[in-house]
Amino acid sequence: MTQPDYPPAIFLMGPTASGKTALSVQLAKHLNGEIISVDSALVFKGMDIGTAKPTATEQDGIPHHLIDILDPSEAFSTGQFKSQALALMDDISRRGKIPILVGGTMLYFNALNSGLDVLPVADPVIRAKLDDELAHFGKNALHQRLAKIDPESAARIHPNDPQRIQRALEVYEISGKPLTSFFADHQEDIPYQKIKLIIAPQDRSTLHATIAKRFRAMLQQGLINEVEALYLRGDLTEKMPAIRAVGYRQVWSYLQGEVDYATMVEKGIIATRQLAKRQFTWLRKETDAHQFETGQADLLEMVLTKITDTLLGQ
Prior knowledge:
Elements lengths: L7 E6 L6 H12 L1 E5 L18 H4 L4 E2 L12 H17 L3 E6 L2 H9 L9 H14 L1 H11 L1 H6 L5 H14 L17 E8 L3 H18 L1 H9 L16 H8 L5 H23 L6 E4 L5 H13 L3
Parallel strand pairs: 1-4, 1-5, 2-3, 2-4, 5-6
């Protein structure tokens, strides 16, 4: 239920490469807002090109939060995002501005929309045991085990994603509860008038073309050198969340000599398309969001009108 006495908060959602960044800055300028990044990769320092992190020029003087806050060796949980985002939203609102949450990590948006139980902290002993089991029995065996204890997670997690399979098994071994139980729909309401906006291309093939063009542009801008700087540090592995980010894990594999350049490019584009597909799956559940098309005429004016009408209860 909308609470008119609640301060407004704008949730700008959409698939990767849909134009969220530029629109969010325009909205912040018109609405006296500040931007909170809802992106699991933008939190990492030194990962700029492959994450399409907005440059200082693109930020255009608008404060951006939850960007460049962690070293790539660290992890950032959904629970951490939620607590930090809510603290930032409170601060921004108290200063008379509007928080604009923008990004494509739908699990983060879901934590604000529906609530989230705190996940168990990683247990190094259990993780080491699962690493041994992965080495001895393989990812398919672990995925089959997950299917028995948590079929929903097994259906959601691809058999070729051993890190997420291990995390789901780890959560079960620590808590005795399946991972999906922590994402139950609590219908937890946060004290904001949430205005949900979705921006996406109408034609999926157009998005695929944009994704391919952008990934190749990232390579021209120096993505390989960016990943190589992380690779040469020596303290990072492909199992870490930062290196598992789309684009980074494919270039990492290339640097390790596992694939050639052409295969790396192909895999990077495919992985980004798969990310967009997962984002669309989440977005279809946002039935109370206002939909806008990437590149449509008078986009900014139409979005601002919708926001104004919503705030006025029209």
